[in-house]
Amino acid sequence: MYKVLRSFLFLFDPEKVHYFSMNALRLICKIGFLKRLIAKKFTPVPFEAGQFKLGKLSFKNPVGLGAGFDKNALYLNELEALGFGFVEIGTVTPLPQAGNDKPRLFRLPKDKALINRMGFNNDGVEAIVQRLKNWQLTVGSRQSNTPQSTANYQLIIGGNIGKNKITPNEAAWKDYEICFTALHDWVDYFVVNVSSPNTPGLRELQEKEALAKILQNLQRINATKKNPKPILLKIAPDLTTDQVDDVVTLALEIKLDGLVAANTTIDRTNLATAKNLLDSIGAGGLSGLPLRERSTALVAYLHQKTNGQIPIIASGGIFTGADAKEKLNRGASLVQVWSGFIYEGPVIVRNICKAL
């Protein structure tokens, strides 16, 4: 059924289809019994408490939705109904920004892939915090009428944070601090994004000195909080081995809470899509099936280099239960989907969890 619907939706602009589909789902989920029907169909049975953890966080299942899908925390209610164990919002920046010029999202059906150059388009941290406050009020109200054993399985929210395009790299640490401080009471964990290829100069912040300044500052702030939140770093799949080793060394030194491997790639090798079409699309980060082997190799390398001391959220090329199993077997603690969600549809969480 979804394949037929996907063929129709793929006739239209990807970004417009994204908002049309999610807004339609939001309208449906406003009707209580329809949301319950959707949740019954797509939500997997929760795993045993404590089976999938990140620090003190316990996940109802290990399948999350990666950052960039719900940038502005608009669809948490709907994504919860589709069964996700966790959803990462953002990337959030201090000030609202429109992002790069459209079109900026492209499908590569022959490769089961996407290319995006969105450019951290989001409503800014203040607006997103207000939405998260409203979400927490809804969750609190719901849980007051729910048995405690079930209430423990609420949707976990991650906050993916970045810098505004106009902020120079030498001042980037301030942008991360602003977002971290504003979001701290409203998300369950943080992901520092210095690895998107779509903000000029951003990947330069992956160098050890610049990265240390950002992460150590956030760790200092986190230590002053009554309820410290896990801080993770999202890295690019295009790093050299030496750069990955620098990241591992720093992560161990400052006792980082986790790594996300990996962001999109700028590599275009071995794609089935015609070169002239790729050239016409131009710059952007590639995600989807072509990233599967590279992200798995990176997960395995990080796990080996850290001796399993640092949890890893695997992201990249996860479409099936077998893909997720491979990532978990190579050292991942949790998995995230994005492109796989677009190509496989709303059954992806249930199917992966069933396979696990």
What is the succession of H and E elements? HHHEEEHEEEHHEHEHEHEHEHEHEHH
Number of domains: 1
CATH superfamily, called what? Aldolase class I
Supply Rg: 19 Å
- What is the approximate shape? globular
CATH topology: TIM Barrel
Cα separation of the termini: 24 Å
Mean pLDDT: 95
Description:
The model is unreliable at 146-151 (pLDDT under 50). The chain has a single domain, classed as Alpha-Beta Barrel (TIM Barrel). The chain is built from 14 helices and 13 strands. Helices cover 42% and strands 15% of the residues. It is α/β, with parallel strands linked by helices. The strands form three sheets. The protein has an eight-stranded parallel β-barrel, surrounded by five helices. Strands 5-6-11 form a three-stranded antiparallel β-sheet. The two termini are 24 Å apart. Helix 7 (172-183) links the parallel strand 7 and strand 8. The radius of gyration is 19 Å and the shape is globular. The longest helix has 19 residues, at 125-143.
Name the features.
alpha/beta; eight-stranded parallel β-barrel; three-stranded antiparallel sheet; TIM Barrel; 42% helix; globular; 356 residues
Secondary-structure blueprint:
Blueprint: H1 2-9, H2 14-29, H3 32-42, E1 53-54, E2 57-58, E3 63-65, H4 76-81, E4 86-92, E5 105-108, E6 113-116, H5 125-143, H6 148-151, E7 156-161, H7 172-183, E8 189-193, H8 208-223, E9 231-235, H9 241-253, E10 258-261, H10 275-281, E11 285-288, H11 292-305, E12 312-315, H12 321-329, E13 334-337, H13 339-344, H14 348-355
Parallel strand pairs: 3-4, 3-13, 4-7, 7-8, 8-9, 9-10, 10-12, 12-13
Antiparallel strand pairs: 1-2, 5-6, 6-11
Helix pairs in contact: 5-7, 7-8, 12-14
